[in-house]
Amino acid sequence: MDMKCQEKIKELRMLTGMNRREFCDFFGISYRTVTEWERDNRHAPEYVLRLLEYYIKAEGLDKKKGKNAR
After folding, report:
1. Has residue 70 been placed in a domain?
2. I need a labelling partner for 64 at 20 to 30 A (CA). Which of 8, 17, 33, 57 fits?
């Protein structure tokens, strides 16, 4: 993946228009885990980032494309 985990997870969260808490609750990922990813202290597996991106696009959660969340 060209983009670092830190940048990618922030980009995906911003696409949804969700704050960190909402994103964590929606996807069932612990708040601490996402915080550590965004602070570049830990790195999400590449497949997790790909799955999140796929789900966000497939379910129309991409607010920047004018689609509605949930």
Report:
1. no
2. 33
